UniProtKB/TrEMBL annotation:
InterPro entries: THDP-binding (IPR029061), Transketolase_N (IPR005474)
Annotated source species: Allisonella histaminiformans
Cofactor(s) of this protein: thiamine diphosphate
Domain Transketolase N-terminal: 14-262
Listed name of the protein: Transketolase
Gene3D superfamilies registered for this protein in UniProt: 3.40.50.970
Family indicated by similarity: Belongs to the transketolase family.
Pfam families associated with the record: Transketolase_N (PF00456)
Keywords: Thiamine pyrophosphate
Keyword Metal-binding tagged: no
Amino acid sequence: MAHLTEERVLELKAIARKLRVDILEMITKAASGHTGGSLSIADLITLLYFEEMHIDPANPKMADRDRLVLSKGHAAPAMYAALAEKGYFDKEELNHLRQAGHMLQGHPDMKHTPGVDMTTGSLGQGISAACGMALASKMDHASWRVYAILGDGELEEGQVWEAAMYAAHYKLDHLTAFVDNNGLQIDGPVSEVMSPLPIGEKFKAFGWHVISVNGHDMSALHDAIEEAHSVSGQPTVIVMKTVKGKGVKETENQVGWHGKAPSPEQCVQFVKEVEEAE
């Protein structure tokens, strides 16, 4: 297993800080969007786009590219920030989040946004689409992989477990799912709204290989992804323990920031905090 060097981890952390700044600024300009869950996956998104995935911004539809499905589609600002930073489109587009006539809408749209592999938004549907992609790769004896990111509240959708059963039945070992286990959804703690816990044990019972990891530890996440690549005959789920609103003390672990935009004054404060973080 190839581990990340300390130097590379620092480089990735710097990119993640840039993405968090872009997330905050675009949601503030839109005066609308999902701050908490976008910030909680910024580290994973950074790692996938800038270290793990075989992709080419100059050729977004490259046949052998790895696919990423953001099943928790409301966290689209995290994906948009990464796509812009990677060079799929001009960063100026980030100024037009959720504006009519522009391509960066509140949920990912594969028809209008370069680099988006699947339109998502209705929770539960993204992981099902990812299963179909992974089956296509397997049937073609191809090498490309499929990654899917789910929210922990999203696991309350029955469709997720139909997809989980399907993935195990067809031995979709090209599929790696990530659960953003930040513990909060729009109405409160997931454990109180409709508990999906214990997450890992449920996926294991459905026939998945399960890895639990700190979702903000780049090295641990990378090692988990490497482990997933080594698994044969099973899909893998990486259950990430994360902090909702990660990177800004005022938003961390606060359910009120699930779908709330910062004010311009708050944005200045929050950006300063992110940029000054180690």
